[in-house]
Amino acid sequence: QLQASGGGLVQAGGSLRLSCEASGRTFNNYAMGWFRQGPGKERGFVAAISWGAGSTYYADSVKGRFTISRDNAENTVYLQMNSLKPEDTAVYYCAAPVKFRQVTTTPAEYRYWGQGTLVTVSS
User: Fold this and answer.
1) Residue pair 31/9 in contact by the 8 Å Cβ criterion
2) How far is CA 57 from CA 20, 34, 37, 52, 98, in A?
3) Shortest CA distance to 20 belongs to which of 93, 107, 112?
4) Strands (E), the chain
5) How many CA atoms lie within 13 A of 113 on its CB side?
6) Which end of the chain has fewer CB atoms < 10 Å from its terminal CB, N or C?
7) Maximal C-alpha separation, the chain
8) DSSP-assigned beta bridge partners for residue 17
9) Vertex 45, ends 5 and 47: CA angle to 5°?
10) Across 10-19, 80-89, 94-103, least confident range
11) pLDDT, the chain, mean
12) Predicted pLDDT at 109
């Protein structure tokens, strides 16, 4: 139901834009989040956006470099990633929460998950 795409290999300092497209149902009235899981690490919060896009939230490690946005007409959420660093290397997942309008940073509070897209940042 959620399809993440846009990952790839990029040099440090480069940019990528991830997309998360919903199919089969609409998530327009859901808050949405991006998470990532690096090698040997637990899945961690990256960014979240309220259902109406009026509020956004970021992990301290990506604040000022990443931007989350959404296009409800396209049923798609984006993550623009600039000034990428090797430590940003991870599989990135988009997700929708159990409580559809709850903006939360906790992975356990999300019910719907995309399949993940791999971002590799070389030094």
Assistant:
1) no
2) 17, 10, 18, 13, 18
3) 93
4) 2-5, 8-11, 16-22, 32-37, 44-49, 56-58, 66-71, 76-81, 90-97, 110-113, 117-122
5) 14
6) C
7) 39
8) 80
9) 65
10) 94-103
11) 95
12) 95
Q: How many residues does the chain have?
A: 123
**CB distance 89 to 120 below 8 Å:** yes
Bridge partners of 80, per DSSP, are: 17, 67
- Rounded CA-CA distance 14/31 in Å is 28
In angstroms, the CA 59 to CA 57 distance is 7
- What pLDDT does residue 66 have? 98
**86: helix, coil or strand?**
helix
pLDDT digits (tens, 9 = 90+) for 55-83: 999 999 999 999 999 999 999 999 999 99
Pairing of strands 76-81, 16-22: antiparallel
Give the closest residue to 31 by CA, choosing from 1, 60, 53, 58: 53
Residue in this structure with the two tokens 């559809």, named with its chain if needed: 100
């600039």: which residue's tokens?
Answer: 82
